[in-house]
Automatic annotation (TrEMBL):
It catalyses: thiamine + H2O = 5-(2-hydroxyethyl)-4-methylthiazole + 4-amino-5-hydroxymethyl-2-methylpyrimidine + H(+); 4-amino-5-aminomethyl-2-methylpyrimidine + H2O = 4-amino-5-hydroxymethyl-2-methylpyrimidine + NH4(+). Belongs to the TenA family. It comes from Rhizobium leguminosarum bv. trifolii (strain WSM2304). Pathway: Cofactor biosynthesis; thiamine diphosphate biosynthesis. Keywords: Hydrolase, Thiamine biosynthesis. InterPro entries: Haem_Oase-like_multi-hlx, Thiaminase-2/PQQC, Thiaminase_II, Thiamine_Salvage_TenA. The keyword Kinase does not apply. It is an enzyme of class 3 (hydrolase). One of its GO terms (biological process) is thiamine biosynthetic process. Catalyzes an amino-pyrimidine hydrolysis reaction at the C5' of the pyrimidine moiety of thiamine compounds, a reaction that is part of a thiamine salvage pathway. It comes from the Bacteria. Residues 32-226 form the Thiaminase-2/PQQC domain. This is Aminopyrimidine aminohydrolase.
Length: 232
């Protein structure tokens, strides 16, 4: 089951409405040069190095957001379920990063010295601010796009014919893996549980942050393709 199929099975739910709302954003994500050239193995190595360094910086902050969201969960069952799904995603991504950092000659010193690009800085600060200052339901909606969009992209790329010798195949395998899909499905389910208990105004906030985080997903990949740095 791919992420698109999943959204149709959620008809009438908050997450189905949210996925429909970001259809224009997803259309732009699906044609991003970074993703199309990663898929066919022609992505320039310097672009991928820039991307993976920024992603390592992003994940450090994202992990903290996940912990904050879990701490705000309304009951122990949701705390444990959310922490479990979050742990899966973090473990998978950390393993992926470790392999690529070695493969592309990126040292631990490079990671330590790296600075977030403007897009990475804006995205992580948006997530942290939302996690700290918003309700559980709203904070959860802000971190959902990262799970769901990566699942969708991974499934879409995995469905294409494999390119022999593609240096980025491990990335494709990671986000097209059933383990990652299971983590994404769990966060989608938790978001719908939270939405059912939310007030109308809170649901509106949930939708707003879901859309904004999805826009930041596009910005993050696009900025990596452009090797974005601070202009001054």
């Amino acid at each position: 089951m791919d992420a698109g199929t999943q959204s149709t099975e959620l008809t009438g739910s908050f997450t189905a409405a949210a996925w429909d709302r970001i259809a224009p954003v997803m259309a732009e994500i699906e044609v991003l040069p970074l993703l199309t050239r990663l898929s066919d193995g022609t992505l320039p190595p310097q672009v991928f190095r820039h991307y993976i360094l920024q992603d390592a910086l992003y994940l450090k902050h994202y992990a903290r957001c996940l912990a904050i969201v879990a701490a705000k969960a309304p009951d122990n069952a949701q705390v444990l379920r959310f922490l479990g799904s979050a742990q899966k995603a973090i473990t998978v991504e950390q393993g992926l990063h470790a392999g690529f950092l070695t493969q592309f000659g990126i040292s631990s010193e490079d990671v330590t010295a790296a600075e977030p690009s403007p897009s990475c800085f804006a995205y992580t600060n948006f997530l942290l601010a939302t996690a700290y200052h918003s309700s559980y339901a709203v904070a959860l909606s802000s971190i959902l796009p990262c799970f769901w969009i990566y699942w969708h992209v991974g499934e879409a790329i995995k469905s294409r014919p494999a390119i022999e010798g593609n240096a980025f195949q491990a990335w494709i395998n990671t986000y097209g893996d059933p383990q990652f899909a299971a983590g994404a499905r769990e966060v989608i389910a938790l978001t719908d549980i939270a939405a059912r208990a939310a007030s109308p105004s809170e649901r509106a906030q949930m939708m707003d942050v879901f859309v904004r985080a999805s826009q930041y997903e596009w910005m993050f990949w696009d900025s990596a393709w452009r090797l974005e740095t601070w202009p001054v």
